[in-house]
Amino acid sequence: EIEIPEDHPRYQSLLTRHRIEEGVNRGITSKQGLIAEGRGEAFDYLLGERTIESADAAERAAAAQLLLADHPVLSVNGNVAALVAPEIVDLAEAVDADIEINLFNRTAERMEAIAAHLRDHGAENVKGLTADGRIPNLSHERAKVDADGIGAADVVLVPLEDGDRAEALGEMGKTEIVIDLNPLSRSAQVAAIPIVDNIIRAIPNITDHARELRTADHDQLAEIVAAFDPEAALAAAEAAIREGELA
Ligand code: PTJ
Protein backbone atom coordinates (compact mmCIF):
# COMPACT_ATOMS: atom_id res chain seq x y z
CA GLU A 1 0.00 0.00 0.00
CA ILE A 2 1.29 3.46 -0.83
CA GLU A 3 0.83 6.28 1.67
CA ILE A 4 -1.69 8.93 0.70
CA PRO A 5 -2.07 11.74 3.26
CA GLU A 6 -5.68 11.66 4.46
CA ASP A 7 -5.96 15.44 4.45
CA HIS A 8 -5.12 15.60 0.75
CA PRO A 9 -8.06 17.33 -0.99
CA ARG A 10 -8.26 14.53 -3.54
CA TYR A 11 -7.66 11.71 -1.06
CA GLN A 12 -10.55 9.52 -2.18
CA SER A 13 -9.76 9.91 -5.85
CA LEU A 14 -6.06 9.09 -5.31
CA LEU A 15 -6.99 6.03 -3.26
CA THR A 16 -9.35 4.88 -6.01
CA ARG A 17 -6.65 5.29 -8.66
CA HIS A 18 -4.23 3.36 -6.54
CA ARG A 19 -6.69 0.48 -6.12
CA ILE A 20 -7.29 0.29 -9.87
CA GLU A 21 -3.54 0.35 -10.55
CA GLU A 22 -3.07 -2.47 -8.03
CA GLY A 23 -5.90 -4.34 -9.74
CA VAL A 24 -4.07 -4.16 -13.06
CA ASN A 25 -0.78 -5.27 -11.45
CA ARG A 26 -2.53 -8.26 -9.87
CA GLY A 27 -4.22 -9.36 -13.09
CA ILE A 28 -7.70 -8.46 -11.82
CA THR A 29 -8.45 -5.29 -13.77
CA SER A 30 -8.03 -4.90 -17.55
CA LYS A 31 -5.98 -2.07 -19.05
CA GLN A 32 -9.25 -0.74 -20.44
CA GLY A 33 -10.37 -0.56 -16.83
CA LEU A 34 -7.84 2.26 -16.34
CA ILE A 35 -9.55 4.24 -19.08
CA ALA A 36 -12.99 3.52 -17.63
CA GLU A 37 -11.76 4.77 -14.24
CA GLY A 38 -10.52 8.02 -15.78
CA ARG A 39 -13.87 8.58 -17.41
CA GLY A 40 -15.69 7.90 -14.16
CA GLU A 41 -13.42 10.27 -12.23
CA ALA A 42 -14.25 13.15 -14.56
CA PHE A 43 -17.97 12.71 -13.94
CA ASP A 44 -17.41 12.31 -10.21
CA TYR A 45 -15.44 15.57 -10.14
CA LEU A 46 -18.36 17.35 -11.85
CA LEU A 47 -20.80 15.84 -9.33
CA GLY A 48 -18.69 17.20 -6.47
CA GLU A 49 -17.46 13.71 -5.45
CA ARG A 50 -20.52 13.19 -3.29
CA THR A 51 -23.70 11.14 -3.26
CA ILE A 52 -26.37 13.50 -4.56
CA GLU A 53 -29.86 13.24 -3.05
CA SER A 54 -31.37 11.50 -6.09
CA ALA A 55 -28.57 8.89 -5.99
CA ASP A 56 -29.27 8.19 -2.34
CA ALA A 57 -32.95 7.66 -3.22
CA ALA A 58 -31.89 5.30 -6.04
CA GLU A 59 -29.66 3.39 -3.61
CA ARG A 60 -32.59 2.99 -1.23
CA ALA A 61 -34.83 1.78 -4.09
CA ALA A 62 -32.06 -0.63 -5.14
CA ALA A 63 -31.91 -2.04 -1.61
CA ALA A 64 -35.69 -2.53 -1.59
CA GLN A 65 -35.59 -4.16 -5.05
CA LEU A 66 -32.80 -6.55 -4.03
CA LEU A 67 -34.70 -7.52 -0.85
CA LEU A 68 -37.87 -8.16 -2.90
CA ALA A 69 -36.06 -10.34 -5.45
CA ASP A 70 -36.41 -14.11 -5.58
CA HIS A 71 -32.94 -14.55 -7.02
CA PRO A 72 -30.77 -11.42 -6.96
CA VAL A 73 -27.28 -11.51 -8.46
CA LEU A 74 -24.46 -8.98 -8.05
CA SER A 75 -22.31 -8.86 -11.19
CA VAL A 76 -18.59 -8.21 -10.69
CA ASN A 77 -16.05 -7.08 -13.32
CA GLY A 78 -12.37 -6.16 -13.05
CA ASN A 79 -12.98 -2.61 -11.84
CA VAL A 80 -15.60 -3.62 -9.29
CA ALA A 81 -13.31 -6.32 -7.86
CA ALA A 82 -10.39 -3.89 -7.52
CA LEU A 83 -12.47 -1.13 -5.93
CA VAL A 84 -15.06 -2.76 -3.66
CA ALA A 85 -14.51 -6.51 -3.17
CA PRO A 86 -15.21 -6.60 0.62
CA GLU A 87 -18.17 -4.24 0.21
CA ILE A 88 -19.72 -6.50 -2.47
CA VAL A 89 -19.38 -9.52 -0.18
CA ASP A 90 -21.07 -7.54 2.60
CA LEU A 91 -23.97 -6.46 0.33
CA ALA A 92 -24.46 -10.04 -0.93
CA GLU A 93 -24.83 -11.15 2.67
CA ALA A 94 -27.24 -8.31 3.56
CA VAL A 95 -29.66 -9.08 0.69
CA ASP A 96 -28.91 -12.80 0.27
CA ALA A 97 -27.62 -12.42 -3.29
CA ASP A 98 -25.28 -14.47 -5.46
CA ILE A 99 -22.02 -12.95 -6.68
CA GLU A 100 -21.14 -13.63 -10.33
CA ILE A 101 -18.02 -12.60 -12.21
CA ASN A 102 -18.98 -11.29 -15.61
CA LEU A 103 -16.27 -9.78 -17.78
CA PHE A 104 -16.38 -7.62 -20.86
CA ASN A 105 -12.88 -8.83 -21.80
CA ARG A 106 -13.13 -12.38 -20.52
CA THR A 107 -9.93 -14.39 -19.99
CA ALA A 108 -9.55 -17.52 -17.88
CA GLU A 109 -6.64 -15.92 -15.97
CA ARG A 110 -8.60 -12.84 -14.99
CA MET A 111 -11.68 -14.92 -14.02
CA GLU A 112 -9.49 -16.97 -11.66
CA ALA A 113 -7.67 -13.95 -10.21
CA ILE A 114 -10.97 -12.20 -9.45
CA ALA A 115 -12.54 -15.33 -7.94
CA ALA A 116 -9.49 -15.77 -5.65
CA HIS A 117 -9.64 -12.09 -4.66
CA LEU A 118 -13.36 -12.33 -3.79
CA ARG A 119 -12.78 -15.52 -1.79
CA ASP A 120 -9.95 -13.76 0.10
CA HIS A 121 -12.58 -11.24 1.14
CA GLY A 122 -15.01 -13.87 2.38
CA ALA A 123 -17.10 -14.77 -0.68
CA GLU A 124 -18.14 -18.42 -0.35
CA ASN A 125 -19.79 -19.22 -3.63
CA VAL A 126 -18.45 -17.25 -6.58
CA LYS A 127 -20.36 -17.83 -9.81
CA GLY A 128 -19.42 -17.12 -13.42
CA LEU A 129 -16.78 -19.80 -13.93
CA THR A 130 -19.16 -22.51 -15.19
CA ALA A 131 -20.49 -20.33 -18.03
CA ASP A 132 -23.18 -22.81 -19.08
CA GLY A 133 -25.72 -20.09 -19.92
CA ARG A 134 -25.83 -17.39 -22.62
CA ILE A 135 -27.24 -13.89 -22.99
CA PRO A 136 -29.01 -13.85 -26.39
CA ASN A 137 -27.88 -11.36 -29.07
CA LEU A 138 -24.30 -10.90 -27.86
CA SER A 139 -21.05 -12.23 -29.28
CA HIS A 140 -19.77 -15.48 -27.77
CA GLU A 141 -17.34 -14.43 -25.01
CA ARG A 142 -19.40 -11.49 -23.81
CA ALA A 143 -22.58 -13.59 -23.66
CA LYS A 144 -21.30 -16.14 -21.14
CA VAL A 145 -23.14 -16.42 -17.81
CA ASP A 146 -23.90 -19.17 -15.30
CA ALA A 147 -27.29 -20.79 -15.99
CA ASP A 148 -28.03 -20.92 -12.23
CA GLY A 149 -26.60 -17.42 -11.66
CA ILE A 150 -27.39 -14.44 -13.90
CA GLY A 151 -29.20 -16.91 -16.21
CA ALA A 152 -31.78 -17.61 -13.50
CA ALA A 153 -31.76 -14.19 -11.81
CA ASP A 154 -34.79 -11.90 -11.64
CA VAL A 155 -32.85 -8.86 -10.39
CA VAL A 156 -29.25 -8.09 -11.42
CA LEU A 157 -26.96 -5.37 -10.10
CA VAL A 158 -24.59 -4.45 -12.92
CA PRO A 159 -22.04 -1.80 -11.99
CA LEU A 160 -19.92 -0.13 -14.70
CA GLU A 161 -21.57 -2.19 -17.40
CA ASP A 162 -21.17 -1.84 -21.12
CA GLY A 163 -24.32 -0.55 -22.88
CA ASP A 164 -24.85 -3.54 -25.21
CA ARG A 165 -24.86 -6.01 -22.39
CA ALA A 166 -27.10 -3.87 -20.21
CA GLU A 167 -29.57 -3.72 -23.08
CA ALA A 168 -29.39 -7.47 -23.78
CA LEU A 169 -29.96 -8.31 -20.10
CA GLY A 170 -33.00 -6.03 -20.09
CA GLU A 171 -34.35 -7.85 -23.15
CA MET A 172 -34.03 -11.11 -21.18
CA GLY A 173 -36.54 -9.68 -18.74
CA LYS A 174 -34.09 -9.03 -15.90
CA THR A 175 -34.75 -6.06 -13.63
CA GLU A 176 -31.49 -4.13 -13.82
CA ILE A 177 -29.89 -1.93 -11.24
CA VAL A 178 -26.99 -0.05 -12.86
CA ILE A 179 -24.26 1.95 -11.12
CA ASP A 180 -22.62 4.40 -13.54
CA LEU A 181 -21.28 7.91 -12.98
CA ASN A 182 -22.31 8.92 -16.50
CA PRO A 183 -26.07 9.62 -16.55
CA LEU A 184 -25.99 9.69 -20.37
CA SER A 185 -24.52 6.20 -20.73
CA ARG A 186 -26.73 3.62 -22.41
CA SER A 187 -26.51 1.32 -19.37
CA ALA A 188 -27.88 4.03 -17.08
CA GLN A 189 -30.59 4.83 -19.63
CA VAL A 190 -31.90 1.24 -19.89
CA ALA A 191 -31.81 0.49 -16.14
CA ALA A 192 -34.94 0.11 -14.04
CA ILE A 193 -32.89 1.72 -11.26
CA PRO A 194 -29.95 3.83 -12.47
CA ILE A 195 -27.56 4.91 -9.71
CA VAL A 196 -25.38 7.87 -10.72
CA ASP A 197 -22.73 7.67 -8.01
CA ASN A 198 -19.23 6.36 -7.50
CA ILE A 199 -19.34 2.63 -6.82
CA ILE A 200 -17.11 3.13 -3.78
CA ARG A 201 -19.87 5.21 -2.15
CA ALA A 202 -22.86 3.44 -3.73
CA ILE A 203 -22.30 -0.17 -2.60
CA PRO A 204 -21.86 0.53 1.16
CA ASN A 205 -24.85 2.89 1.06
CA ILE A 206 -27.10 0.25 -0.58
CA THR A 207 -26.02 -2.15 2.17
CA ASP A 208 -26.85 0.40 4.89
CA HIS A 209 -30.30 0.93 3.38
CA ALA A 210 -30.84 -2.84 3.09
CA ARG A 211 -29.98 -3.38 6.76
CA GLU A 212 -32.30 -0.55 7.74
CA LEU A 213 -35.12 -2.03 5.58
CA ARG A 214 -34.66 -5.54 6.92
CA THR A 215 -37.84 -5.38 8.98
CA ALA A 216 -39.95 -3.76 6.23
CA ASP A 217 -42.70 -5.97 4.80
CA HIS A 218 -43.33 -6.78 1.13
CA ASP A 219 -45.78 -3.91 0.57
CA GLN A 220 -43.49 -1.31 2.10
CA LEU A 221 -40.59 -2.46 -0.09
CA ALA A 222 -42.78 -2.54 -3.21
CA GLU A 223 -43.94 1.00 -2.44
CA ILE A 224 -40.35 2.28 -2.27
CA VAL A 225 -39.58 0.69 -5.65
CA ALA A 226 -42.80 2.00 -7.25
CA ALA A 227 -42.14 5.54 -6.01
CA PHE A 228 -38.72 5.62 -7.69
CA ASP A 229 -38.69 7.37 -11.08
CA PRO A 230 -35.63 6.46 -13.22
CA GLU A 231 -36.06 9.34 -15.69
CA ALA A 232 -36.31 11.89 -12.89
CA ALA A 233 -33.21 10.44 -11.23
CA LEU A 234 -31.20 10.70 -14.46
CA ALA A 235 -32.46 14.25 -15.05
CA ALA A 236 -31.47 15.26 -11.49
CA ALA A 237 -27.98 13.82 -11.98
CA GLU A 238 -27.55 15.60 -15.30
CA ALA A 239 -28.72 18.87 -13.75
CA ALA A 240 -26.25 18.45 -10.88
CA ILE A 241 -23.43 17.96 -13.41
CA ARG A 242 -24.43 20.77 -15.77
CA GLU A 243 -25.35 23.37 -13.20
CA GLY A 244 -23.27 22.28 -10.24
CA GLU A 245 -26.43 22.75 -8.22
CA LEU A 246 -26.78 21.08 -4.84
CA ALA A 247 -29.12 18.28 -5.87
O1 PTJ B 1 -13.34 -6.11 -16.32
P1 PTJ B 1 -14.07 -6.09 -17.64
O2 PTJ B 1 -13.33 -6.86 -18.70
O3 PTJ B 1 -15.49 -6.56 -17.52
O4 PTJ B 1 -14.12 -4.58 -18.18
C1 PTJ B 1 -14.73 -3.58 -17.40
C2 PTJ B 1 -14.75 -2.18 -18.10
C3 PTJ B 1 -15.21 -1.18 -17.08
C4 PTJ B 1 -13.34 -1.85 -18.58
C5 PTJ B 1 -15.70 -2.25 -19.32
O5 PTJ B 1 -16.97 -2.66 -18.89
C6 PTJ B 1 -15.77 -0.91 -20.04
O6 PTJ B 1 -15.02 -0.62 -20.96
O7 PTJ B 1 -16.68 -0.07 -19.56
P2 PTJ B 1 -16.95 1.42 -20.18
O8 PTJ B 1 -17.70 1.30 -21.46
O9 PTJ B 1 -15.70 2.25 -20.12
O10 PTJ B 1 -17.98 2.00 -19.14
C7 PTJ B 1 -17.64 2.19 -17.81
C8 PTJ B 1 -18.63 3.21 -17.23
O11 PTJ B 1 -18.45 3.21 -15.83
C9 PTJ B 1 -18.38 4.65 -17.71
O12 PTJ B 1 -19.62 5.26 -18.04
C10 PTJ B 1 -17.76 5.35 -16.48
O13 PTJ B 1 -18.19 6.70 -16.39
C11 PTJ B 1 -18.33 4.53 -15.33
N1 PTJ B 1 -17.43 4.47 -14.16
C12 PTJ B 1 -16.08 4.38 -14.15
N2 PTJ B 1 -15.61 4.30 -12.89
C13 PTJ B 1 -16.69 4.35 -12.07
C14 PTJ B 1 -17.86 4.44 -12.87
N3 PTJ B 1 -19.09 4.48 -12.35
C15 PTJ B 1 -19.19 4.42 -11.01
N4 PTJ B 1 -18.12 4.32 -10.17
C16 PTJ B 1 -16.86 4.29 -10.65
N5 PTJ B 1 -15.81 4.20 -9.83
TrEMBL record:
UniProt entry keywords in alphabetical sequence: ATP-binding, Coenzyme A biosynthesis, Ligase, Nucleotide-binding
Identify the pathway.
Cofactor biosynthesis; coenzyme A biosynthesis
Its recorded reaction(s) are:
(R)-4-phosphopantoate + beta-alanine + ATP = (R)-4'-phosphopantothenate + AMP + diphosphate + H(+)
Reply yes or no: does the keyword ATP-binding apply.
Answer: yes
Q: What EC number(s) does the entry state?
A: 6.3.2.36
Quick check: keyword Hydrolase in the entry? no
Q: What are the GO MF terms of this UniProt record?
A: acid-amino acid ligase activity; ATP binding
Q: Which residues cross the membrane?
A: none
Q: Which Pfam families match?
A: PPS_PS
Report which superkingdom the organism of origin falls in.
Archaea
Residues that bind ATP: 17, 39, 180-182, 186-187, 198-199
Any one Gene Ontology BP term: coenzyme A biosynthetic process
NCBIfam families linked to this entry: phpantohe_syn_Arch, PRK13761.1
Say what the protein does: Catalyzes the condensation of (R)-4-phosphopantoate and beta-alanine to 4'-phosphopantothenate in the CoA biosynthesis pathway.
Q: Subunit structure, per the record?
A: Homodimer.
List the PANTHER family. 4-PHOSPHOPANTOATE--BETA-ALANINE LIGASE
- Family indicated by similarity: Belongs to the archaeal phosphopantothenate synthetase family.
Record protein name field: 4-phosphopantoate--beta-alanine ligase
Q: Which organism is it from?
A: Halohasta litorea
